[in-house]
Design a protein that fits this description.
By secondary structure, this protein is α/β, with parallel strands linked by helices. It is 49% helix and 12% strand. The chain has helices spanning 10-20, 33-45, 60-74, 97-124, 147-167; strands at residues 25-27, 50-52, 79-82, 129-134, 172-177.
Length: 180
């Protein structure tokens, strides 16, 4: 479960729901170690095994190591939720190169890295599984000052739909959800 540590995030709610439904949960985030510790304790309080593994999702090697650590600590993957994301409210003409690169690297490249590593682990283990990617309402409804964010989320939609076709023969279901 990437992007799950922060108090205000969708990922935290997803992690709780998974634990309440009987799943052991590994959470990932960057820069939120204190919040992550609280969530891990909460999930363990529900009687589930839980772990916090920090990794920058935009770094493919770090994501590969994260997936290996999750499997080592909690066992084979059944469900992977790629939820990490960032947003900057900026007019199109004001988008900086740094902002563009940051949004693309976390929102699109990061989700690709997580999905690829998770799918590879599931296929290698000959396991059926579920991959769920958080996109956004921006996939269907553009908002002013969110051009790059919206583009990354639309990219996720296309990637997920293709992954669903390619991974179905392996028994892996891939979906995206677009809260908003």
């Amino acid at each position: 479960m990437t992007g799950a540590a922060r108090e205000r995030g969708i990922g935290r709610g997803i992690a709780r729901c998974l634990a309440e439904e009987g799943c052991d949960v590994a959470i990932n985030d960057v820069g939120a170690e204190d919040e992550a510790a609280g969530l891990v304790a909460e999930l363990r309080g529900l009687g589930r095994r839980a772990a916090f593994i920090t990794a920058d999702v935009s770094d493919r090697g770090a994501v590969d190591a994260m997936i290996a650590a999750v499997e080592s600590e909690l066992g084979p993957l059944d469900i992977v939720c790629s939820n990490a994301g960032v947003a900057d409210w900026e007019g199109f003409l004001d988008v900086t190169e740094q902002s563009f690169d940051r949004l693309v690297s976390v929102n699109l490249t990061g989700a690709f890295n997580v999905c690829r590593a998770a799918a590879a682990a599931m296929v290698a283990g000959e396991r059926r599984g579920r991959i769920v990617v958080t996109s956004s309402v921006h996939v269907q409804m553009p908002f002013a000052e969110m051009s790059v964010y919206g583009a990354t989320k639309a990219g996720l939609k296309g990637m997920v739909e293709t992954m669903a076709i390619e991974l179905a023969p392996h028994g892996i279901t891939v979906n995206h959800i677009g809260p908003g």
